[in-house]
From TrEMBL:
Superkingdom classification of source: Bacteria
Protein's UniProt name: Leucine-binding protein domain-containing protein
Organism field: Methyloligella halotolerans
Residue span of region Disordered: 32-57
GO biological process, one term: amino acid transport
Pfam families: Peripla_BP_6
Domain spans labelled Leucine-binding protein: 113-269
Family indicated by similarity: Belongs to the leucine-binding protein family.
PANTHER family: LEUCINE-SPECIFIC-BINDING PROTEIN (PTHR30483), PERIPLASMIC BINDING PROTEIN OF ABC TRANSPORTER FOR NATURAL AMINO ACIDS (PTHR30483:SF6)
Length: 457
């Protein structure tokens, strides 16, 4: 019998012999990263003769005779020809925008377009399986450029799928071009209610929520919280007045009460001076005192001139909601639910910054087109428009439910995030606000309230 020491020695030798046989059968060991440079000459001797490779096919063609190579090339060409191609035009203008409130916020000059680029990437990943390819054409003019002329240039080739990063007046000018009559224009920038009401256009679909939708989303939550008395304070910009009008409509719709409607009169242009905070601190109590008994300050300050300074500085210690404070938005960089983190990461990888609302609406516009194309297989602009406006159409957008377009004004139905600071507080529509068809139709103008009359001639 073997001693304990001899049994151990025999076992080690036995295992060593097995390992040696395994390595011999397995071939050479893999080369480590640090040995790659020294191993390269040896591997080069093992590469196939380049003269045996079909041009453009690499090592895959090794061993094929000329006939097989020709057949493979013909199959690839046929597959490429059979692929359905879609051009999506991003038509925009570099409007002057308010500077960031503080130096802690980056100056963003590529809002929207980065989201569209992410959308193209996402849609093409699906298109590879369905034989479809989507291409983004970027047509963006400077602030003093002629976007109508650019639109005419784009439309020379016929009907187009257009993502419009345009303000209301320019959007209508483009939509009213005779050349644009058969095109599909997706509004990703302007929330003006008039674009969904009397100034609606049949060739225009709205991805971004309207002011009425935003106000209703916020109003529902305030009524749910039993905060029905609102002190409305607004700026002097046209968009400030638009949101204020939507707020008045929401109050009437849901039983809220605007206890006072006040225009902010002070100049906050010196906020970055050494004494800026002192000036702001003295202004805000004066601007908000004497408003009576109210639950929240509802601010309409789309230019970001004063609204942020109302927080913690008002005469009465009340919450701030509206364009600052608790904000009704289509997207927020704190939102990660329903897979939303994937979009946040994609924009960050693409643009090296956080996603903003216009990135989301531009991304969703691309996905809306892509969904219609992938599901239907249609290629013409008219057919894709008909698909997007059909009752069966649905598009996903990280909101936990499928979205589609309203037939009476072409607004995309969608939940609205109520974001405050570094978190999303809630999502509207709120529980208890009912509708016979879509709960999201409690946000914005319902069909019976619509003043839109499409001219399809």
């Amino acid at each position: 019998m073997l001693s304990s020491y001899n049994r151990k020695t025999f076992g080690i030798a036995k295992h060593g012999l097995c390992l040696a046989i395994f390595l011999a059968l397995s071939g050479p060991a893999p080369v480590s990263a640090q040995d790659q440079d020294t191993a390269a000459p040896a591997r080069a001797n093992q590469l196939p003769d380049p003269s045996t490779l079909q041009k453009g096919k690499g090592i895959e063609a090794e061993g094929m005779d000329p006939k097989q190579q020709a057949e493979k090339a013909a199959e690839a060409k046929k597959a490429k020809q059979a692929e359905k191609n879609y051009e999506i035009v991003y038509l925009g203008k570099k409007y002057a925008e308010p500077p960031p409130l503080t130096i802690a916020e980056p100056i963003i000059t590529d809002k929207g377009i980065q989201g569209a680029r992410v959308g193209i990437d996402d849609t093409n990943r699906t298109g590879r399986f369905t034989g479809q390819h989507f291409e983004l054409t970027e047509a963006i003019v400077p602030n003093d450029g002629d976007v109508v002329a650019k639109a005419k240039e784009v439309l020379k080739g016929g009907d187009k799928l257009i993502i419009a990063d345009l303000e209301a007046d320019d959007l209508l000018k483009v939509a009213d071009l005779p050349e644009a009559k058969g095109s599909v224009i997706l509004n990703v920038r302007d929330s003006a209610d008039r674009l969904r009401q009397k100034d609606c256009r049949f060739n225009t679909l709205h991805i971004i929520p309207s002011w009425a939708m935003r106000a209703d989303a916020l109003g529902q939550y305030l009524i749910l919280k039993q905060w029905p008395r609102w002190f409305l304070i607004k700026g002097k910009a046209p968009e400030d007045e638009q949101f204020a009008k939507a707020t008045e409509r929401t109050a009437k719709r849901y039983g809220g009460k605007i206890v006072e409607d006040r225009v902010y009169q002070f100049d906050t242009g010196s906020r970055r001076l050494d004494s800026g905070h002192q000036q702001v601190q003295s202004q805000m109590p004066i601007a908000t005192q004497g408003a009576g008994n109210y639950d929240v300050i509802w601010v309409s300050d789309t230019q970001d001139g004063f609204g942020e300074y109302l927080l913690f500085r008002s005469y009465d210690p009340k919450p701030v909601v509206g364009t600052q404070g608790l904000r009704p938005v289509a997207w927020d960089d704190a939102y990660t639910e329903y897979g939303g983190m994937a979009f946040q990461r994609a924009v960050n990888d693409k643009a090296d910054r956080n996603a903003v609302e216009r990135d989301y609406t531009a991304w969703l516009a691309v996905r809306a087109i892509g969904e219609a194309a992938v599901r239907s297989g249609k290629t013409s602009v008219k057919d894709l428009r008909d698909v997007m406006l059909s009752d069966d159409y649905k598009v996903a957008g990280y909101k936990g439910e499928a979205m589609n377009f309203r037939s009476w004004n072409h607004q995309l139905r969608q939940p609205i995030l109520l974001a405050g600071g570094r978190t999303v507080v809630t999502i509207s529509p709120q529980e208890g606000f009912l509708h016979p068809k879509y709960l999201t139709d409690t946000l914005g103008y319902d069909e019976r309230e619509s003043l839109c009359e499409f001219d399809q001639n």
